[in-house]
Specification:
With 307 residues, this protein is α/β, with parallel strands linked by helices. The chain contains 9 helices and 8 strands.
Length: 307
């Protein structure tokens, strides 16, 4: 049964009407990646840096700094199958301008050709590279991930925990993709989903976990399956009620809180997947953005940043 307009946040009704219930299927993945690459090739998307297996794009504040300070590691979305580090350039610019800190967007390898652990290893390599820069304080790196990137951000925080190396000081998880089991059973609200559905989710996780026992994935591969969440960095988690990831995100937030991890949870009533990128000028999208900026700024200030 089609969803009614009343299902969505009043600010998002028109955007929801424009969005398909899904865009990712096995046949569409190469098409989406080709189109995305062509679009990104002609966009202004930061300074590229080749790190070997992984490349990054650096976005700099207008005002350069002379002493080490905070930075953000940015992990794009795309269901682990599509997407590009350059696709969020305009949104990244807003974070750079609001906070005055550099943002490093990671071109991690995609799961279609490179299953776990390759994408997560790329994120770890980019984090280590960013932390080693002379203008970055390694104790003040927030990792921000969107959708699949949010799942990678959560996995990265788990991977780095207690490793003796660099650990993110904050994990900002924007409607993160955290649990492969969300594909297993029908959802009562499926008619309200946009851009990402259970079939897309099954495809993304299936490719990411290819070659592994999917009934018992390796540690850090599926963040929600991690037995213990103690000792992870503080978290900001945001998701809409019309999102396949809603339940798993709330469950993860509750587990973090129960484990003693300071966690801010923002639930957008009537928000569909990626609503803030589909309609960034909507009041609800602006508030969603401000909440993320506020969480990052507060964390940096708490660690001694003077702004």
């Amino acid at each position: 049964m089609p969803s009614s307009d009343e299902t969505f946040h009043p600010d998002l009704v028109q955007a929801a009407r424009r969005c398909p219930p899904m865009v990712v299927r096995r046949w569409s993945v190469p098409v989406l990646n080709l189109l995305g690459s062509l679009v990104c090739r002609f966009s202004s998307a930061g300074d590229p840096v080749d790190l070997g297996d992984v490349s990054v794009f650096m976005h700099w504040p207008v005002q350069p700094r002379e002493t080490p300070g905070p930075a953000i590691l940015w992990l794009h979305g795309g269901g682990l199958l599509v997407g590009d580090a350059r696709q969020d350039a305009s949104l990244i610019r807003r974070f750079v301008d609001e906070l005055g800190v550099p943002v490093c967007s990671v071109q991690y390898r995609l799961a279609g050709a490179h299953p776990f652990p390759a994408p997560l290893d790329d994120c770890r390599s980019a984090l280590d590279w960013l932390a080693a820069r002379p203008d970055v304080d390694p104790s003040m790196i927030a990792v921000l991930g969107i959708s699949a990137g949010g799942g990678l951000a959560a996995g990265l925080a788990q991977l780095c925990r207690g490793s003796g190396g660099v650990e993110p000081c904050l994990q900002v998880l924007v409607y993160p993709m955290l649990d492969d089991r969300s594909s297993d059973a029908p959802h009562p609200d499926e008619a309200s989903y946009r851009l990402w559905d259970r079939r897309s989710n099954r495809l993304g996780w299936g490719q990411y976990l290819r070659g592994h026992d999917q009934s018992a994935p390796p540690p850090c591969a599926v963040p929600s399956r991690m037995a213990s969440l103690e000792g992870l960095p503080p978290a900001w988690i945001g998701v809409g009620t019309c999102d396949l990831f809603h339940d798993e995100d709330l469950a993860y937030a509750r587990r973090l809180e129960a484990s003693g991890v300071p966690t801010e949870l923002v639930v957008v009533e009537g928000g569909f997947h990626a609503f803030d990128t589909v309609d960034p000028e909507a009041d609800v999208s602006r508030a969603f953005f401000r909440s993320q900026v506020g969480a990052i700024r507060s964390r940096f200030l708490a660690l001694g940043w003077t702004g």
